[in-house]
DNA sequence: GAGCATTTTTACAACGATGGAACGACGTTG
DNA sequence: CAACGTCGTTCCATCGTTGTAAAAATGCTC
């Protein structure tokens, strides 16, 4: 039922190729014919068949976005930005969810054959170095966030060590002495980096490194944060501050602390990581590291684009490791409002 | 570089079609040849070219999911479920974001030509009846949530009137007399339905309908909820309860109320709508209507699938209007914990 | 072992779009 | 006015896959 080039051509009284030329903006078409074709295009409501075009051209117009789970606010927000950035460059985005498991990350990489996509943006969590060896990289691949260290693949992320150091430095700066960390995880590279930043900051502030103030979290959901916090509160000498490796952990931790009868920030200061929209409205609002998400999305899509075209011309385009900016948003979970709660909303 | 049927055929010493037959599980292939082909398949690592296959078969393998914004938790959660449901049926999902504007909803419907997708799931917000007239519906279309009343299109949603009545009935049931509503919006069909349920419940409880207890919200973001709440608090006689048309509005409303010095639920009870994950962990946790989101996702994808196949055989498959179940999750924002806050997490 | 039915394999033509070559129809130039 | 370069158009092949139909191989019966 849908119109094809052939239909349009018949209606306009020209050859199929001429219509194709008009559609693709080829210069040399007689004005009269162009007019006729455009009219026919309009009346038939012609839309190119992307499958066919892809078959012929070898490009698909799709890029894959592989991430743990769309329902996690950080990834939802990131995905929204990636889609927007990709669309500006004429790409559609296919989203693949891995639940953060190695199996599904690997299969996403191979199953989405090179036939289907022009590139992939991957936010890995469990992928090991050797998985990349198996991956015949025929399309550009960019990793976002997590990074398997010894694989030469384009990468976009913030400086995790510095960000963590900034966050924990802030806690030390407001006088906290027993600063815990939630989110350590041997399988996550970013966890190690954030832990490193945490340690750096403690050392810098002349505070001791206590192993049992560092709590592991397998998943990074609210539930795990609450769990970890309860664990910390069971200590003889509970912490007076906690740095959580993402906002969800922090939200969970705050919940557990409040249920335990603590006041935030008086008894316990909390810092998160990601600046999800939720963190600006939680009660108390959450101090957090705010990565520039749209810079990340933009850089990732841009890299796919550049490497895609560079492949043809200049094969020596070096592997990129792009660091995007971040800031620390200081909110009520670390600094109580001096006056009574005001009638102003939290900053966006 | 990627292997095609031709390559495999050459390697196995048979015709292209025989390989195709093996790949597609056609029965009549000599065991010896089948073995050889399978071996060749394995050594080349052949993957079918989906674009080509779809071109031939007339299917695309994609369905579109058109929604306002992925960064809104409800839609992020829904999208995650739709993707999972679609994948079980061999579909990939293309996500289109409309920001809830009529223009972009309309253009998503037309631009995603029938060439590109086998069906579309649409969560509309601003679309008017007449927009559907223009839409040459050549592929199955399912509307989720919102529903343009007089258009015969498959639809999946919960019973909004009943849900709202349940929520407000709960507020009346715990003794609230001045129950406000946040989220009225002339352009949203669900808003009218929820308002209707709100009014039904008030009437049922013998409470007066006060127009200025109903506050409009253009967007349904946290910000708008806070804004609306401040408006209500400026009243001479502020409400003792508020029913918000989604969780984000409720979160914003709670924020504004707390900033204003109110205690929740003692001074103000709050009910939301959607049961986003955030609502179970907010402080206080939020009482909310919990639609069965995976039932919605499942039903929507299933409808696309059934209508797609029904089109061939039985053109008289009637328009469906599926109501999915919901529950009311009662949490701290309406019912204070009787004992001191316990060391238990909120229910999931 | 001829005749016939049944398997198994292959050749060919599509699906819709586009790159390239070929072909006309011009207007210029010498 | 013949030779030539430009412009505009059409024809053909092709991307990888699969449905159709025809061809080839096999098995069975008498």
Automatic annotation (TrEMBL), chains A, B:
<dbReference type="Pfam" id="PF00356">
    <property type="entry name" value="LacI"/>
</dbReference>
<dbReference type="InterPro" id="IPR028082">
    <property type="entry name" value="Peripla_BP_I"/>
</dbReference>
<keyword id="KW-0804">Transcription</keyword>
<dbReference type="GO" id="GO:0003677">
    <property type="term" value="F:DNA binding"/>
</dbReference>
<dbReference type="InterPro" id="IPR046335">
    <property type="entry name" value="LacI/GalR-like_sensor"/>
</dbReference>
<protein>
    <submittedName>
        <fullName>LacI family DNA-binding transcriptional regulator</fullName>
    </submittedName>
</protein>
<feature type="domain" description="HTH lacI-type">
    <location>
        <begin position="3"/>
        <end position="57"/>
    </location>
</feature>
<dbReference type="InterPro" id="IPR010982">
    <property type="entry name" value="Lambda_DNA-bd_dom_sf"/>
</dbReference>
<dbReference type="InterPro" id="IPR000843">
    <property type="entry name" value="HTH_LacI"/>
</dbReference>
<keyword id="KW-0238">DNA-binding</keyword>
<dbReference type="Pfam" id="PF13377">
    <property type="entry name" value="Peripla_BP_3"/>
</dbReference>
<keyword id="KW-0805">Transcription regulation</keyword>
